[in-house]
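Narrative of activities, Objective 1.

The group set out to show that a structural description can be obtained from nothing but a protein's sequence at a throughput compatible with the screening campaign. Below is one input-output pair from the validation batch, recorded exactly as produced.
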Amino acid sequence: MTTVTNLVLNAVAYAVILRDFYQSHPAVSDEFMKQLQRQPDQLVGWAMGVTALAMGFLITLIMKWSGATTFTSGLKHGFIVALLFGGSVDFGLYASSNLFSQASVFVDYACSVAAIAISGGVAAWMLGRGKPL
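Output recorded for this entry:
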């Protein structure tokens, strides 16, 4: 469930916010960006699946280790994890590559934090089902 939640939230964030934002705030020329990024019909499905599963399991494992068993506690723990993990990835890529403009790194970071935090809430809720409060 966490894997699906995180995958759907990230896909929606990309479709609704990030795709157009990246295009209006490019870090590099359009031609170079076309060489870097795959078109939607060229995405490697199995690799996207591995990514989604790995992140879903990571979020669920962290929620289990934290002892979070409600949506709210998972949201809080997920938010902290998201700030640290997302900050490390996004700002590390911004510092070392031309994948992001300064504006797009912050928008991507906010979307990633939201997706991971909500996924943490779902994971904790799933872990706490059936347990007495």
